[in-house]
Amino acid sequence: MSRKLLIKNGIVICPSQKIMDKLDILIDGSIIQKIQKDITDHEAQILDASGKYVCPGLIDMHTNLKEPGREDIGTIKSGSESAASGGFTSIACMPNTNPVIDDLMGIEYILSRTRSVGLVNIFPIGAVTKGNQGKELTNISSMVEAGAVALTDVNKSIMDSSLMRSALEYVKMFNIPIISHCEDSNLSEDGCINESRVSTILGFKGIPSIAEELMVSRDIILSRFTQSRIHFAHITTRSSVEMIRISKKDNIPITCGTTPHHFSLSEEDILKSPYDTNLKIQPPLRSQDDLSAIKEGLQDGTIDTIATDHDPWLDNEKDIEFINAPFGIVSFETAIPLIFENLVTTKYLSIQDVIEKISLNPSKILNLHRGILKNGFVADITIIDPELEINITKDFFHSICKNSPFIGRKLKGFAVYTIVNGQIIYDRYKDLFCIQQNN
Amino acid sequence: MDNLTFKHRHLLGLADLSREEIELVLSTAVPMKQIFTRSVKKVPVLRGKTVVNLFYEASTRTRTSFEIAAKRLSADVISISSSTSSISKGESLIDTAKTLEAMNSDVIVIRHNASGAPQFLSQHASCQIVNGGDGIHEHPTQALLDLFTMKEMKGGIDGLKVAIVGDILHSRVSRSNIIGIHRLGGEVRLVGPPTLIPKDIDKMGCKIYYNLEEGLDGVDVIYCLRIQLERQAKKLFPSLEEYVRLYSINDKRVKLAKRDVLVMHPGPMNRGVELSTSVAYSDQSTITNQVTNGIAIRMAVFFLLLGGGRSVQEITD
Fold first, then answer.
1. Is the pLDDT of residue B1 over 70?
2. d(C-alpha A360, C-alpha A351), whole Å
3. Which of A118, A212, B65, B86 falls 20 to 30 Å from A6 in CA-CA distance?
4. Taking CB atoms and an 8 Å cutoff, what residues of chain B touch A206?
């Protein structure tokens, strides 16, 4: 007989069915058996969720796991622990590892490591071009058959428009999206922060907003022409939001995302603590006006997803001259509180909207058949305590690397239980991870 | 003002200095300069102090100037350049600094191609830091010596119109000078092709001119910046010939400014590019004064940072 778990007295949120109500959920094995008021089941383990949100498991569609190649800073095990403690039940990992995930073997490697040590569901994303070099297409069909859920060249745009066109046309037969980084590398070369008054004052070569906007506009035009799906990984400027808003009205098959840091921080924060390399992020933190545009885009639905772009680096890699430091921050574990602080309490988004953007929509874009709390669906569930406050210190992070600009801040609203395939894999009260048992 | 002490541990940039503090450095440099005319050009104020010049970029003039300044104050000076040290073995900036600190250095003068490297060092090392030029951010001692030179020749900076001409985009000298001239009440015009003017620099309170003739009209100071020839490769301007045709300061163009205009250049200059040879060696040129004043300013900076609050009269009387 399989294990049963009964989640009682929580506020169940399911944007797909427009549910937000005090309900109980009974899980049998790995499957949701029943969702209704006042369930009793004497065989089931009871989990009291009073005062908490019971949500479809969060899905992060943009994660840098660093395995293979940099197991010293991030592994499939450490990355999935960090994700689980941040409330994520599924993550999609980027192929810019060493070697690049650009063939069947790479996809198989990620999936087999996940089966051995992964806590959460891990969905590999393959490279569009061999070695992410932007020259030749990868063997797409074999990667997709093995389990690749999307393709991307991660932190590079495919500058050759003819190659991008071919890639878009080719992937139509698999119904997967190409995730576009959207940055014209000729314009962004050697830049380290947004090109503006701030870069001028601090003496940095800037990354101009047009580097992003030109690629967004090109890719919109390519998507319209090929009728193939593009997901813009993380747009950051007002014009990008506006172009996408207009194009969606024309039913061009595009979607787009943002990250917690791009709606929580702006370049003004760099001016406040100049040369703090934990503010060196790609795409760069932009102006206050761009930040407002991102929030407006989230509010009116132009921006479909919130993804972490979790990107670990060691202290000794980050603690160097700003221009030489790598881009990126760890962000699984601060994602939920930053969403509450900057989007929910400020009334840009309701909690249902949030769950839509961080669970349902990523699932739809990547065809994961998750993000829904309904009888018969896989029991991937995140339970969030919106009132829980935590002082963020280095020790707070489960990630190997602690490169976060939010250390020293007090944040509010955290995942307390993360449930994958019906099993509690993270319990914040005990600060404990449990490896999934295969049923 | 004589009672004002210099409260900073480091000299990282002019952005950190108030008008009064800048004036204190300039006034401290006056008696320092008088030492140069003595037969013994050395005073024993910093005996026992150790100054390290840590240069990650090639430099003759700035490094030598810091060296002479420290020696004239009787400090011990060591100069390290990146090609002849463990830096070339890949040692990180932070570790190099920790090593120098463990050798009980008092001041590190750092020049680095990364903007913010002196700030970074000041957060990680316990010695005092002097910025000898960082990336395209600041070059505070250069600006201080330029301000000293302007003040010496013109009596003051208040109300002066200064045209900075050339590659503003890659110039740390221009950023420090803009801040310094503004703090002391002067006006800054930036003159150059649009591709060499950084974004939003007008928000630092400068007027922008693409046309040299308009930019020079009625100015008190023409400040030429060095053109780095490799910029051309980055497609920022078509050719040196074009640059010279549009922006080189020649005798005819000098006449557009005030009659008693000063022509300044931080060096090293490309002869016949930023300014014509005849202008460079004219009476209006302050290029050699700037070099001499650089030593006085750097002595003043060392004295204010290391002198333990002593008054400058005490040592120069």
1. no
2. 13
3. A118
4. 199
